[in-house]
């Protein structure tokens, strides 16, 4: 029985996926040659591929830029007060809303910058916050 289970597990986890995995690896290495990956430590490679998953949210606030707002405007102060009270998971959901991902890939949080803009609409009470994920802009009505 043990031999059967061992053979079955080997088939399911190794043999049955061997060809698709080899095809994937061949294509992956064509676009990303292995010699390029050797310059990274395993931890650095994980950050490059998966992104940063832990954040200093106060550093994020420090790095934000404003357009048609000033840092001390009431809307901005309210935004950050509410943001910092959110649980970690909700903060990551905000990051996904802003950037399309709940992670920051390929670079450190110190380099991550986004902008908060006033959309300058006639009646801000009728407009919801929105984001331009390509340019990392949060449109925050007053």
From TrEMBL:
Lineage, top ranks: Eukaryota, Metazoa, Chordata, Craniata, Vertebrata
Signal sequence coordinates: none
Gene Ontology MF terms: ligase activity; ubiquitin protein ligase activity
Species in which this protein is naturally found: Dryoscopus gambensis
Stretches assigned to the HECT domain: 1-142
A Pfam family reported for this protein in Swiss-Prot or TrEMBL: HECT
Gene3D superfamilies linked to this entry: Hect, E3 ligase catalytic domain, Hect, E3 ligase catalytic domains
Protein name stated in the entry: HECT-type E3 ubiquitin transferase
Residues annotated as the enzyme's active site: 134 (glycyl thioester intermediate)
The EC number(s) this enzyme carries: 2.3.2.26
């Amino acid at each position: 029985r043990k031999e059967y289970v061992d053979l079955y597990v080997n088939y399911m986890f190794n043999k049955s996926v061997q060809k698709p995995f080899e095809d994937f690896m061949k294509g992956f290495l064509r676009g990303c040659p292995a010699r390029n990956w050797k310059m990274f430590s395993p931890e650095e490679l994980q950050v490059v591929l998966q992104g940063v998953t832990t954040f200093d949210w106060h550093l994020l606030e420090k790095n934000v830029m404003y357009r048609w707002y000033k840092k001390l405007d009431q809307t901005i102060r309210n935004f950050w007060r509410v943001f910092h009270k959110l649980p970690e998971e909700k903060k990551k959901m905000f990051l996904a809303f802003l950037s399309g991902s709940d992670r920051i890939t390929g670079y450190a949080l110190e380099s991550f910058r986004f902008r908060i803009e006033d959309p300058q609409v006639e009646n801000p009470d009728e407009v919801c916050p929105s984001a331009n994920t390509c340019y990392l802009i949060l449109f925050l009505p007053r």
